[in-house]
Structures are given as C-alpha cells and as structure tokens.
Design brief:
Elements (H helix, E strand, L loop, with lengths): L3 E6 L2 E6 L2 E5 L10 H23 L8 E8 L5 E9 L9 H8 L3 H7 L15
Antiparallel strand pairs: 1-2, 2-3, 4-5
Helix pairs in contact: 1-2
Length: about 130
C-alpha cells in the first residue's frame, strides 16, 4: 500500500490513498482533526469493524450498540491506557457479550501497536518533469 502525503496550505497535511483523502490539521485554526486524533480514532473504528462484523454474521441488530473509547495519558502527555467500552442495549443477548469483546480484540490496529513495525525514513531528490 502506498500513501501520498501532501501539504495543501496552512498547517494542513493530507494523506491520499486509493480514492480517499484523510485531511489533518493543527490548532488553533484546525479545519480537520490532528494526525494523532485520526490515529486514536482508528483504534476505536477498527474495533467497531470487528464488532459490526460479529453482529452481522449472526443476524444481531446493531441499533443501540456503540463503543466509547477513553484515552488515559500520563504526566508526560504519552498515552498510557486505552479503554474500549462496548455499550449494548438491554435487549442484546447476554450470551454474546464476551464474544463482542473477543471480536473487538481482533482489531488489526491494536495488534500492530502490540508488535509495532520498524520505521525507515529517507529523503529522495525528485527532478522537475
């Protein structure tokens, strides 16, 4: 997978891949979320994809289901703990609640954080066309 990162103006930094653009910005006049906020949201949305898939495979309604993600940071500002609370309506079958947790635990973003990739950063001179 290749992403193209560009600088459309101000403090904006956008990522382009496939037919998608993920816009990011920095305060004080942010027109989009910060890159770190996008990163953090990818954890909850990834878990959500697995929860959604679990429910769809079993024909379980997703009305009233949501995930609340809480970020706990230390004094140095670094994230120390991330909580994902899957909220379900009272009508959701109790026998599937632990399975929802196991499905959310399959999140690929979380798994990559548990075993992070190596980073290689280089520069390359590109001649004008």
């Amino acid at each position: 997978m290749e992403l193209i990162i560009d600088f459309p103006g101000g403090s904006r930094v956008d990522a382009h891949f496939g037919n998608f653009t993920v816009a990011t910005d920095q305060p004080p006049a942010a027109s989009a979320p910060t890159p770190f906020a996008v990163f953090l949201s990818s954890i909850g949305t990834c878990a959500g994809i697995y929860v959604l898939g679990f429910c769809q495979q079993r024909g379980l309604p997703t009305d009233g289901i949501r995930i609340v993600q809480r970020i706990h940071s230390g004094f140095n500002g670094m994230v120390e703990k991330i909580e994902l609370e899957i909220q379900v309506p009272a009508s959701f079958p109790e026998k599937y609640r632990d399975s929802l947790i196991r499905s959310a635990d399959l999140c690929a973003v979380k798994k990559h954080l548990e075993k992070p990739p190596k980073f290689e950063i280089t520069t390359k001179v590109v001649l004008p066309a």
